[in-house]
Amino acid sequence: MSSTPLTLEIPPLPAYIGTVRLFVAAVSRQLGLDEEAVDDLKVVVSEACTEAIRAREQAGEESPIRILLTPGSSTLVVEVEDALNEDLASGDSTTDNITRNLGSELIRALFPKAEVVARDGGLASVRLTLPLAQA
Amino acid sequence: MRLHPGPYEEVARIDIQLDIEGTEGWRIVRVGGEVDLFTAPKLKEGILDLLNGGVTKLVVDLEKVDFMDSTGLGVLVGALRRLKERDGTLSLVCPQGPVLRVLEVTGLSKVFDIHDTVGDATG
User: Fold this and answer.
1) Which of A56, A60, A80 is nearest to A5 (CA)?
2) What DSSP element (H or E) covers B69?
3) Most exposed: B18, B28, B86, B106, by fewest CB within 10 Å?
4) Which residues form the domain of B38?
5) pLDDT tens per residue across all 123 residues of chain B
6) B8, B67, B70, B76: best mutation site toward chain A, by most A Cβ within 10 Å?
7) Does residue B10 form part of some domain?
8) B contact set with A (CB within 8 A)
9) What is the CA radius of gyration of chain B?
10) The complex's ipTM?
């Protein structure tokens, strides 16, 4: 199976988060993920995109958000670039923003092995590696 | 694939449906569709209108919600807080499905009063 990433790039606007979910769900179903895993993946990707939009709003940036799906022979790697601010990436829960804490909690609860990859500019990407059923 | 910004009405193909009705002192908000950063404000507005109008017994029916993330959960937690401040009641209708799963993994299933049907919630 090809390891070329399938990439979706969206403007940092809330209206596009649903499109990201459709994209991620379609690809992951095609690769054989069960429906529960697809549902969990949709939640985590939605949370990551929500944070990516908020991070850009706070920074006054309008750079697009990239979502990369890389299918391998036994895994699917999902990455949302520049999705988290450093405070969330480091697990700092000092903010009293209930919704943002819930979002961070959802990512950790649904994918405990989610990787947070630091990038330039105080932002970090979220990377998930999901096992694929062997043919 | 790169998507470019366009008018909201062109990209807003996913939206929630909000129907409000009343029965025996309860107000029931029936929600359908997907609740996320884009659509949660509509849910919040609908609920706030009721709370600002003096409603203290509220049911939010999530049976036809296909997807909800933390933005939707935040709206529900906010409503619960507001109602508790005035000794009100918030019940959720949420049978099996992805919404119940996010309520469970966040521990909110222990915070909310959750029922399988509207009848159970108002009974």
Assistant:
1) A80
2) none
3) B86
4) 16-122
5) 777 665 544 444 445 677 777 777 899 999 999 999 999 999 999 999 999 999 999 999 999 999 999 999 999 999 999 999 999 999 999 998 999 999 999 999 999 999 999 999 988
6) B70
7) no
8) 1-5, 8, 11-14, 34, 36-38, 67, 69-71, 73-74, 77-78, 98, 101-102, 105-106
9) 15
10) 0.86
Of A9, A11, A43, the CB nearest to B69: A43
On whether residue B5 sits in a domain, the answer given is no
Which position has the token pair 């992805």? B98
Looking at the structure of chain B, the number of domains it has is 1
**How far is CA A90 from each of CA A4, A124, A127, B7, B30, rounded to the nearest angstrom?**
30, 10, 15, 36, 38
For residue B84, which amino acid is it? K
Give the residue carrying structure tokens 């949302």.
A80
